[in-house]
Amino acid sequence: MKEERFKSFVAVLVAVVTVLGASAACFSAVAVSSAGDMDFSGIDISIRGQKAQIINHIDAYEDYRAFTDFLRYDELGYQYYDNEKLQKESWGVAEGIRFYFFDSRYLGADALSFDIQRQIDGEWAEDTQQEDLNPQPYFDQSDALRVTSSSHASMMIVFAISFWFLTLAQATEKSIKYLWVSLGILFALGGIFGLAIGGLLS
After folding, report:
1. What is the C-alpha separation between 4 and 10, in angstroms, rounded?
2. Tens of each residue's pLDDT in the chain, 202 residues
3. CA end-to-end span of the chain, whole Å?
4. What's the alpha-carbon Rg for the chain, to the nearest Å?
5. Could you give the CA distance from residue 31 to residue 152 in angstroms, rounded to a whole number?
6. What is the DSSP secondary-structure string of 5-62?
7. Are 140 and 155 in contact (CB under 8 A)?
8. Residue of 4, 3, 1, 11 lying closest to 184 (CA atoms)
9. Taking Cα atoms as reference points, which of 161, 148, 163, 144 lies closest to residue 195?
10. How far apart are CA 147 and CA 18, in angstroms?
11. To pair with 22 at 20 to 30 A between CA atoms, which of 36, 54, 107, 167?
């Protein structure tokens, strides 16, 4: 290969490797930015999930308090066995509380116990059906994107080595320049392969 043609060939390779290195830097930056977005989404969902759980606990214990009022008035009705008017009033209040102030689905089989945890779990199941409250997939995606970013960043080093060999080939007049250009091409191909694998894994 004539000297001028060789230098032109190497100059083209240098330009290509420079673009590839810049692309690797860009891909790495995009992956880091996307990882940050995934982290933000995961944290937001975590906060909303915690809020939903707090509300569910408050609701469940308010219902349990209403249930204890129901028991009190129901028992009071039995105490008024000799006063039909007061007995009906007590049982009426008890039934009103039972109908309006807690969910009978969570009563025990004997209607004398109230399953708080079951209500909390039931309300949480309803919450998760209405909106996404699982942050873990977002954090997993963030971790994967950071691995991809690191992979792209490492390819920048590979392209930098390729650039160094190609520059050395340009500056060398001896036959060893063909070795330098071959190594430059080899590292460039390795960098391209690394970018392709990183893109597939992301």
Report:
1. 10
2. 577 788 888 889 999 999 999 999 998 999 999 999 999 999 999 999 999 999 999 999 999 999 999 999 999 998 888 888 898 999 999 889 988 888 888 888 777 889 999 999 999 999 999 999 999 999 999 999 998 898 899 999 999 999 999 998 888 878 888 898 999 999 999 999 988 887 665 5
3. 41
4. 35
5. 9
6. HHHHHHHHHHHHHHHHHHHHHHHHHHHHHHHHHHHHHHHHHHHHHHHHHHHHHHHHHH
7. no
8. 11
9. 148
10. 23
11. 36
Both tokens of 57, joined, read 């606990």
Burial level of 110, CB count in 10 A (0-12/13-18/19+)?
Answer: exposed
- How many whole angstroms separate alpha carbon 39 and alpha carbon 47? 12
Please state the domain count of the chain.
1
Q: Could you give the angle at which helices 177-201 and 3-79 cross, rounded to 10 degrees?
A: 20
Which residues are paired to 107 by β-bridges?
A: 114
What letter would DSSP give residue 111? S
Among 51, 75, 108, residue whose Cα is nearest residue 116: 108
Residue 55, domain extent: 3-201
In the structure encoding, which two tokens stand for residue 58, read together? 């408050």
Quick one: pLDDT at residue 201? 57
114 strand-pairing partners: 107
Tokens 């209040």 map to which residue? 93
Q: Are 9 and 106 in contact (CB under 8 A)?
A: no
